[in-house]
Write a structure and sequence with these properties.
This protein has 267 residues and is an alpha/beta fold. The chain is 37% helix and 24% strand. The longest helix has 17 residues.
């Protein structure tokens, strides 16, 4: 069995990962549950605190100790703490799966440095369907070329802090790369006023925040006389949790390096 530590265990995604581990999916079991210092759940049984029964694994604020007794960590916290956990995992010689978003270039570099000594899966979206969407969208863009305009719309719950979503950013980068562009040059994030005619090269990315939407992403390829749309809708966080546990099972024992879900899924 693969022993997994869940970081941010009492968060929305953390609890979803705990539920998947309770099933022992992909041969993974819960070995540790970590939360921030002074979290009200500290010391409680992790499964009981999440309403899942009993695990005999208490919620702790000591990640270094937890990862030392496990094989891999799954982290859905936020960028700054994910960097700290990646460094601690590297120091312990243990693998880590990171699903947090909103990383700066410096923070991504820190995760990459940690991955120089341990295997790390870093992905803004652990959904199998979304990662197929990345590949499909890039393949479509190559065929359609510059004759079709590209626009991306993402919708998430009102509590999401980063914008656009990490998934939308990766989707835009995948399509831009397929078209020989970069988002630094082609990206347009919102339009207002007399902006003039749309350029042929730009790629629009728009964020909507409303209610409790788990996550929706649509990429539009608009040509003269037709429009092609590819949409992914997440119905629950379960899809991300299952992808993360699948990644944890895959990355345990892999050589050091920075991997993504494309590698996990063999795409």
């Amino acid at each position: 069995m693969i022993r997994v530590v869940v970081c941010g265990a009492m968060g929305r995604m953390g609890k979803a990962v705990l539920a998947v581990l309770r099933e022992r999916a992909h041969g993974c079991v819960l070995a540790g549950a970590v939360e921030a210092a002074r979290h009200p759940a500290l010391g409680r049984d992790a499964f009981e605190a999440a309403g899942l029964g009993r695990a005999d694994v208490p919620v702790s604020d000591d990640f270094a100790r937890a990862i030392a007794e496990a094989d891999v960590a799954v982290d859905f916290t936020h960028a700054a703490s994910s960097v700290d956990h990646a460094r601690a995992a590297a120091a312990a010689g243990k693998a880590i799966v990171i699903g947090s978003t909103g990383f700066t270039a410096e923070q991504t570099g820190a995760v990459r440095a940690a991955a120089g000594s341990v295997p790390c899966v870093l992905s803004p979206n652990m959904s199998v369907g979304v990662n197929l969407m990345f590949k499909t969208a890039a393949d479509v863009a190559k065929v359609l070329g510059d004759e079709y305009d590209v626009e991306i719309v993402e919708v998430h719950h009102r509590f999401k802090k980063d914008s656009p979503s990490g998934t939308a950013v990766k989707l835009a980068d995948a399509v831009a790369g397929a078209l020989g562009r970069t988002m630094e040059d082609a990206g347009v994030y919102g339009r207002q006023g007399m902006v003039g005619e749309r350029s042929r090269k730009e790629i629009g990315v728009f964020a909507v925040r409303a209610g409790d939407v788990v996550g929706e992403h649509t990429i539009v390829f608009g040509g003269m006389g037709e429009r092609l749309e590819i949409t992914h809708r997440a119905h629950s966080r379960d899809t991300f949790a299952r992808g993360a546990v699948r990644a944890a099972a895959w990355v345990a024992g892999k050589p050091p390096g920075l991997y993504d879900m494309k590698a996990v899924l063999g795409l």
